[in-house]
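ARCHIVE CARD
Drawer: 12
Card no.: 0347
Subject: one protein chain, sequence and derived structure
Cross-reference: see card 0346
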Amino acid sequence: MIKYLAGAATASGDTVKTSLGTITLPAGAKQIIGVWCMAHGGAGDTTLENVSGILELESPDVNLQPCQIPLEPLAVLTSGMASIPNKVWPMNVAVTTGVRVTGYVTMDQALAINPSCRFGLVVEV
């Protein structure tokens, strides 16, 4: 069986490493088979505020380091909202119940208008 897990949306439009929170894997978890991250800037972004960055995963329970994934850049063509679409990157990491994985994002450029991110894991149980 496969479970899709998601963290909470977090304000994250800065160029410093920002925690997106921690996901604790459910009972019976066997391996992480995918990871995704969604990032967006709110209405009013301009052509000067393109959305791109790096997702990093860390865990005190399983060796994920270094795990840095570039978010696919999105150019803002007019004034409005910009959002990086969800893409699941494949992984193959053996895990057990209760493993904790924290996601971090560092944006390439600071976003001023309601920026947020969320990350998630695809887990085989």
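Annotation on reverse: The first strand starts at residue 2 and ends at 6. The chain has no helices and ten strands.
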